[in-house]
Amino acid sequence: MENTAKEQAPPCSAAPALPQVMVATTAMLSFISFWRAAAIVLNDLASSAYYAGGIAEQAVGKSAPWFILAVMLFSYAVRAIYVESCSMFVRGGVYRVVKEAMGGTLAKFSVSALMFDYILTGPISGVSAGQYLAGFLNELFQFFGFHIVLSVNGTAAAFAILVTLYFWWENIKGIPESSEKALRIMQLTTIMVVLLIGWCGYTLWVRGGHLPPPPISTNLHFATNALGWLSHSRLPQTIGLIGILIGLGHSILAMSGEESLAQVYREIEHPKLPNLKKAGLVIFIYSMVFTSLVSFFAVMIIPDTVRKGFFENLIGGLAMNMVGPLMLRLAFHGFVVLVGTLILAGAVNTAIVGSNGVLNRVSEDGVLADWFRRPHPRFGTSYRIINMVVGLQILTIVLSRGNVYLLGEAYAFGVIWSFVMKGLAVLVLRYKVPGPREYRVPLNLHVGGWEVPVGLSIITLVLLGVATVNLFTKQVATLSGVAFTILLFGVFTASERVTRARGGAHEELDQFHLVPGEELTPKAVGARPNNVLVLVRDYFTLHHLAAVLRRVNTSRQDVVVLHIRIFQRAASGESALAAEQLFSTTEQQLFTKALCLAEHEGKSIHLAIASASEVWEGILRSAYSLQASAIALAPSTKMPIAEEARCAGLAWEKLADPKPHLTLEIYAPGEKEEIFYLGPHAPHLTPKEIDLLHNLWLRFSTELAPEEVHHHDIVHFALNEMLAEIAEGKDKDIARRLMDHLAEIKSRRITNH
């Protein structure tokens, strides 16, 4: 299995054997608890509580909260479809499931609708956050007597553009998502929700209140623009089912974000499926309580004459209309805006990451040309896809002029049709792949040798019914959604044909023999223990590999070149990690250049690819599995070298015992090298430090004679004295003195750590 560069002929000649690339099909993921998984999904799903109720009431009147509640209850059934697809596919997103069930054509259609969803998720979330901010600022201006009134829609659009540009730059740089951050945001949101429910409950106890009118035909007052092409028809009033479906269609935004559940499934810890079910239950209870109660409280507390002014700012309206001092209500309104900005801005980022992941996934399948996935010269991210997505999002914000209702109507198209395609695909797979599953959507009848999936069929039919009615009632959504879907479908189809026609277009690239394996081991990659692991990010940054090859004698020590692909929570799903999916043209270009460097030095290298969800945990676990003695890499473009070494140390601490002794070598351009030692190790002392220790030893060995004193006794005693001072509460003083010391010796520091 050895990958020897000498065996590789120049690209223009015929090679007798292909270099091998070990593709680890078991990704080195950092697994998370179901609580963290629920927090990640709720960061996307719970954001709809800020705008779904207002949009629904504008469309159907005061009965809207009942439709919101119905949608939230129905979301548990829809979530069951996602659980079943995840039990079949490790990452059971729409694209993968539809492709398996109904082929590539419908898969392209489904991913086009999903992209419409993602393109609009960012604008509606950013604009909604801007609406809350503008409303709060206007309240403050009025309170302090300033004669300033901000244009709510204009301010919201400007804020949404700024937030989108901020996350565009973050994604260009490749800043990873954090489950810890998602958990903290949801903890803060939970505090707000508890305060909101308690305060609203107290307000109703003091003032009294009435439930919204039930959703019967006489209580449904559809706005003209809520009926679309049915505005001149009596069908919504005369046929109750149509009226109900229209109401559900205008409330379906309340469960947007379900696709996030499939994306996060791969990272959930063992036992996977039971934890997914627990996460789903937490998501259901939280979102149902939060989203539905906001709508009910708004109708019951905010006067009808006032509520119209808060349709885009419903929770802010609640904050200002509860009982209590005005200053306290303003303070709570500010808290609502802070939490809303965090959770809605997070949804903007999710939309960019999600779009990038989906388009990368279809590009890997040859549906999009590799040109789209070319890495950024500095950051190594798929910047062309990110630029395209963000450009479309900013264009959407500008065209909407900050109108949340308009964005919500269009957004519903992508949401509902993604659900429909998912339901149809899982239904087809019941018959196409009838084997055993870890989970099935409940309510299945067995007639003879046939299974009749009654529950799954009902859920899919309801989704299809709502989607069909939406086509007639949401003119903006239908026209824009169908146009976008057809356009993107056409782009996918044309690009796929061009890509296939140019199947042999990469003749300048070496070809590789992909060898799938469960995990990285020295035997699997053909390397000996005690090897040097060289991390390669992209083909623009390989100077560190050249430096290692010049230094290492490969007859005594092997060099393993490893590329780690970071999994985002936003690809649209796949089953196993097939080798051809992991090894794209980008990796082919990367390893071609690595082989050229090895051939130039006349030394052998071993090639491997692994996947991880956290970069440093992936690196350290790879080094641990390969029994490497050293890790070599180029400096990060995202953090200083010292910070990167600290991250490596934290990841080392998470390795299983016994932990290996590893050397971290970071090569800046020009072969300037910094070395760090991971784990406990003897410090490298400067001559001045050695002299200081020796002088202390001379003094105390004389004073304590005939007691035997060693140099390490002096060090041990000094460390114990520091611990004693910390125990006495002097840690801040020690930290200050240590900082002064570091500042004093900064110019004399050595590079070895």
In short:
This protein is α/β, with parallel strands linked by helices and 753 residues long.
Sum up the structure in keywords.
globular, alpha/beta, two-stranded antiparallel ribbon, 753 residues, 7% strand
Task: Please write out the topology.
Elements (H helix, E strand, L loop, with lengths): L19 E5 L9 H12 L6 H9 L3 H25 L5 H9 L1 H40 L8 H22 L5 H29 L16 H4 L7 H4 L1 H10 L9 H6 L7 H30 L2 H4 L6 H8 L4 H39 L18 H18 L3 H29 L12 E3 L2 E3 L1 H20 L1 H27 L11 E5 L4 H4 L6 E4 L7 H9 L7 E8 L12 H4 L2 H17 L4 E7 L2 H12 L3 E4 L7 H13 L8 E7 L3 E7 L8 H17 L7 H17 L3 H15 L8
Parallel strand pairs: 1-4, 1-7, 5-6, 5-8, 6-7, 8-9
Antiparallel strand pairs: 2-3, 9-10
Helix pairs in contact: 1-7, 1-12, 2-3, 2-17, 3-12, 3-17, 4-5, 4-17, 5-6, 5-15, 5-16, 5-17, 5-19, 6-15, 6-16, 7-12, 7-15, 10-18, 12-14, 14-15, 15-16, 17-18, 17-19, 21-23, 24-25
What does this protein look like?
It is a single chain. With 753 residues, the chain is of the alpha/beta class. It is built from 28 helices and ten strands. The strands form two sheets. It has an eight-stranded mixed beta sheet with strand order 4-1-7-6-5-8-9-10, with helices on both faces. Helix 14 (314-321) packs antiparallel against helix 15 (326-364). The longest helix has 40 residues, at 104-143. The relative contact order is 0.14. The model is unreliable at 1-16 and 570-581 (pLDDT under 50).
